[in-house]
Design goal:
The complex is a heterodimer of chains A (251) and B (260). Chain A is mainly α and 251 residues long. Chain A has one domain (4-247). Chain A has helices spanning 4-21, 23-40, 55-73, 77-84, 87-92, 98-127, 133-160, 168-181, 193-199, 203-215, 221-247. Chain B is an alpha/beta fold. Chain B has a 6-stranded mixed sheet with strand order 6-7-8-3-9-10, with helices on both faces. In chain B, strands 2-1-4-5 form a 4-stranded antiparallel sheet, covered by helices on one side. In chain B, a hairpin with a 2-residue loop joins β9 and β10. The chains are: A mainly alpha (251), B alpha/beta (260).
């Protein structure tokens, strides 16, 4: 336990350096939400979206969660590659903290996602987004929470499967409906009753709603508060699963 | 006082087609400063045994002590004292040699300056000094093997486990690696536990051989003793003895899953 902090810092540093070395990776993950922002965002300007604030205040929070959803969920790919060349096993034979092997990587993903989110918000501001600074900061906190949760799950899955063929299909199958059902592109306020009900079973929806509320300056319990609770619960479950998988020998 | 001792060490995998007993019960002892050759046909349980002794896989039966630490109760103690070089190596092709060596030192809890100095020292010992700033992916097969071993030596382990260390190497690199392994033992009194498929390697390098088949130890002794006992005549080759011990059957595919 006494080494958890320094071990995490060590693993974090290693993977952050690798991530920053491939600048392509940083930009690549941003492409999809950036396209939505630039090529889809302007279409919504005069469409009634059922929420408060303007269309940018509705779309940008959705795109932030989408960015987290897709980038973090695929984080495990790196581990698949490392497993093939024996890096994971080599690290597991050292006394390095098992939890640090997970935390160091997940924190790297958080930093990367925050940089990408910042770039996304800056472009959105140039396009016309106006939102309270505190709201934007709260949005980043939610992105961080989502990232650490999904990245942990993704790393855990990658440790358990044999190769990319057991990994990518699972992530894609979960992510696509999760994205649509959390009202990322258009708010669920527009949904018929049944769809709204289904979407309430998807935890990401509460994060999207919370960030949207924060972007219009509403920090109430029923929006940001609920989102924070759901986000923290998601994080607790994911970290528990991730830690278990990383602790267990044989992976 | 043996540096490794196991009693009934066993591992059963639960698969969809029922339990598979990859290792049924291994009893062996390794003395300090010994080079032990661990032989057996494919699927005999060599790799599974090695993965248990190096804490990568929890045994489902039996007990073992490695470098004075109980394998089940104190795996962290074992990790601090052993080095393990897997067949696949374990360095990232996109990372520099120096960074891998320094990070490895840090994972063994060396301080920053200490880890950097140790990386230089290891590189000098293993002829990697010129290559420190290259990417691991740019090394030749022999160079990469020396790096893998350097990684395993970072913390001056009491026991070094080598899984098929010369597979895929050209004859020159192979001879070089044999010299290196002897040097480690003679110079530092390190115990070396190595698996190999090459009987000439086992004969040239190991002080004593342990042959496993179907998950248990079926023979052990010096190469000369095995040849005399199983080969039928003093002129017999180790191959004759090996086939007499394990039976002349074709190698079965490894039934034990690598990752569970």
């Amino acid at each position: 336990m006494s080494h958890l902090f320094s071990d995490t810092a060590l693993i974090f540093g290693r993977y952050l350096r690798q991530a920053l070395d491939s600048k392509v990776g940083v930009v690549f993950g941003l492409l999809q939400p950036m396209f939505y922002l630039i090529f889809f965002g302007p279409l919504l300007r005069d469409v009634p979206l059922g929420g408060e604030g303007d269309s940018w205040q509705t779309l940008v929070p959705g795109l932030l969660i989408q960015l987290g959803l897709f980038s973090a969920a695929f984080a495990g790919f790196g581990i698949l590659l490392e497993k093939q060349v024996g890096v994971i096993e080599r690290m597991r034979v050292t006394p390095v903290s098992r939890l640090a092997l997970l935390l160091g990587r997940a924190l790297k993903d958080v930093v990367l996602l925050l940089v990408q989110s910042l770039l996304l918000v800056l472009v959105a501001v140039a396009l016309g987004l106006r939102a309270p600074v505190l709201g934007v900061v709260v949005g980043f906190l939610f992105v961080g929470l989502l990232t650490i949760s999904l990245a942990s799950l993704s790393y855990a899955l990658a440790m358990r499967v044999d190769g990319p063929q057991g990994f990518a299909p699972v992530i894609s199958t979960v992510n696509m409906p999760a994205m649509l059902l959390s009202g990322i592109l258009l708010p669920m306020a527009l949904a018929p009753g049944w769809l709204d009900a289904v979407s309430r079973c998807v935890p990401f929806r509460y994060l999207v709603d919370a960030v949207r509320a924060a972007y219009v300056g509403d920090f109430g319990w029923d929006t940001v508060g609920v989102g924070a609770l759901v986000g923290l619960a998601l994080c607790a479950v994911s970290m528990t699963v991730g830690t278990r998988v990383f602790r267990k020998a044989g992976a | 006082m043996p540096v490794i001792s196991t009693a009934g060490l066993a591992r059963t995998f639960q698969t969809k087609r029922g339990p598979v007993e990859a290792v049924r019960g291994i009893d062996l002892t390794v003395r300090p400063g010994e080079i032990l050759g661990f032989l057996g046909p494919n699927g005999a349980g060599k790799t599974t045994t090695l993965r248990m002794l190096t804490t990568l896989l929890a045994p489902t039966g039996g007990a073992a002590t490695v470098a004075g630490c109980d394998l089940a109760r104190d795996p962290e103690g074992v990790r601090r004292k052993i080095g393990y070089v897997a067949q696949s190596g374990g360095t990232d092709p996109s990372v520099s040699v120096r960074e891998e060596l320094v990070t490895q030192g840090r994972m063994y809890r060396l301080g920053k300056a200490e880890a950097a100095a140790r990386a230089e020292e290891l590189a000098a010992d293993l002829g990697l000094s010129e290559l420190l700033d290259r990417k691991c992916g740019a090394l030749s097969g022999g160079q990469r093997r020396r790096l893998d071993i350097a990684m395993g030596l970072t913390h001056r382990p009491v026991v070094l486990f080598l899984d098929e260390p010369t597979t895929g190497l050209d004859p020159g690199s192979r001879a070089e690696l044999w010299d290196l392994i002897r040097r480690l033992r003679d110079g530092q009194g390190m115990t070396v536990f190595l698996t190999t498929h090459y009987l000439d390697e086992a004969e040239a390098l190991a002080d004593r051989l342990v042959v496993v088949d179907r998950g248990t130890v079926v023979a052990e002794g010096t190469a000369a003793a095995l040849k005399a006992q199983y080969g039928g005549s003093p002129e017999a080759t180790l191959q004759d003895a090996f086939i007499a011990i394990t039976g002349r059957r074709t190698a079965e595919p490894d039934t034990a899953p690598i990752a569970v």
